[in-house]
Specification:
Blueprint (H helix, E strand, L loop, with lengths): L2 H23 L8 E3 L5 E3 L2 H8 L7 H10 L5 H5 L3 H17 L7 H8 L6 H10 L1 H11 L9 H4 L1
Antiparallel strand pairs: 1-2
Helix pairs in contact: 1-5, 5-7, 5-8
């Protein structure tokens, strides 16, 4: 696997879990995700498409992004692709943990650099460092992705 594909898979899986949690919290069904077209017609995503997105098995395309943004009353794409601070922190934690343990990143400069900051490679230690430095991590992520990013799909965001 490539670095990009590892991070895409991780991001899509975490985003799917978070979107599923949000839909459940709002008591929305998978067949209620849609948007209004320029012609004034309602375009619903298929339940299969929504289900695959929620499982992290499918890219959120531009149209799917519009459908989720509309259905969840989000003002911009960033709210969809980074729906909460908790999601952002979990994403950062999982990316760091993945870089430290996934063989794809073996012998990379990034892994060596991150590994220097950790006495042992444990999820608990990663969580503690993220929590201790969360403002720095969140500010970095916030400056990296704007409210209206040029990227239009979940794979591009990842």
């Amino acid at each position: 696997m490539t670095y990009k594909s590892v991070i895409e898979e991780l991001y899509c899986k975490l985003l799917g879990i978070e979107l599923k949690r949000i839909l459940n919290e709002r008591e929305m069904l998978q067949n209620q995700i849609g948007y209004e077209t320029a012609e004034g017609e309602v375009e619903l995503l298929s339940e299969t498409t929504v289900g695959q997105i929620l499982k992290g098995k499918r890219n959120i395309s531009f149209n799917a992004s519009l459908a989720f943004q509309t259905s969840l009353d989000y003002k911009n794409p960033r709210e969809l692709f980074f729906p909460s601070i908790e999601f952002e922190l979990l994403l950062i934690e999982n990316i760091i943990s993945t870089i430290l343990v996934d063989p794809t990143f073996e012998n990379t400069f990034l892994k060596k650099l991150i590994a220097k900051k950790f006495s042992n490679v444990s999820k608990k230690e990663v969580s503690q460092i993220i929590e201790k430095n969360k403002e720095i991590f969140l500010d970095s992520l916030s400056s990296f992705i704007s409210d209206f990013p040029e990227e239009e799909t979940s794979h591009q965001i990842a």
